[in-house]
Specification:
There is one protein chain. This protein has 21 helices and no strands. It is mainly α. It has 2 domains: 266 residues; 140 residues, no CATH class. It starts with 8 loop residues before the first helix and ends with a helix.
Amino acid sequence: MQALLHISAVKVILLALVTLLAVVIWRYSAVALAGETDKPRFMRALAATIAAVVVTLLANHLVLFWLGWIAISLSLQQLLLFYPDRPRAQLAAHKKALSARLGEALLAVAFTLLYLQFDSANIQHIIQHLAGTTTASPLVHGAAVLLALVALLKCAQLPLHGWLIQVVEAPTPVSALLHAGIINLGGILLLLFAPLMAISGIASALLLVAALFSTVLAALIMTTRVSIKVRLAWSTVAQMGLMLVEIALGLYTLALLHLLAHSCYKAYAFLHSGNAVNHYLAAQLAEPTEPTVSHWSAAALLAAVLVGSTHLLLPFTSLASSMLLMMAVTVVLLPSVGRNDNLRWLRVMLALLYAAGLLALYLAGKTLLVKVIPDTGSLSFTADLFASAMFATLFIVAVLLRYHASKPLLNRVFIWLNAGGYLDEWATRITLKIWPYNPPAAKTIATLAKQETQA
């Protein structure tokens, strides 16, 4: 058993997360699906998916890990098709299945290369060898590149993201399970094989470029969406891309913290999506205020003070991570700074306390997790600068679209983003050419078109 299974500090944390999500989603499903005739089938598929995730996390053998990876996809497929009479759900599951099969094939090749290099299928044995070297052979580089591609596929990065956006047809518990748990498997894979990524500059560069562009585009596309669940789905694509960027930069501690925080938030957001509609409507009815340059400057200055103080307590190893914190805190503080009335300073103080609390949680999380999975310490300045520039571009374009989308150039950008850059259309055409979709006779594409018209 010791050769097949292995437990570590990182796996204990991940298993705790899986347990928490499993309990919450299971209880929610038991209530939400009350009265459904096929509820037992749903609960069996949910149990199988959770069990497959646990086996995959504990696996210490390349073959067992690969089989668990496949089992997760197959059991999740049953959940995605819980309502098999919905054509859109069928098409989304079909696209997801093709992406999953491609990822499984690439993972098999990557594991084969690792076996040929180290003459062992024991994952811990391979990791120990990788941790003790600073150079990579062609086989190791090939395995690292393939694992990066598998992670990009599993995390639904652009342009193969469409299935994740469209599986909102599935019941809400499935969305919560997928967006809070299963989608993280790409990042978990790379974190478990962190020493491999650390010595392969080729794989890290590929991962950085692909994930960065996916993050920026998905985050901008999200701002054009109205549907709560669709916005959350695009948010997942962007957040997964950001996590992969952190891994590519060697910021493994930050990536694990990001994974944990995103999982808890996204599970809450999907299971609470009904009330999210009310919050969104309330925000739309609130008096709109466009912040001025002085408001932005004041918020950025206060954010700089807070983030600078955090840096004194726990020095940042990356310009990109400090810039992300600066932008996040600025956005948190801006509403209180922008409202000019008698309660302005009280709101500013409360916002500062809130931001300071978030930074304190960040400090505590990084301090605890750095002992579990430390950073590589070999951050490339060029990669860090490139990521920082992309994040700054994202921030500027998002602000312009938020407040000046009516201007001709920005309006054209908004329309293009609202169409998702037409990336999914091209990906769908290619997907259906590779693996044609044949819906049941009673549920043809005509039915799908009719449903789209009625919607």
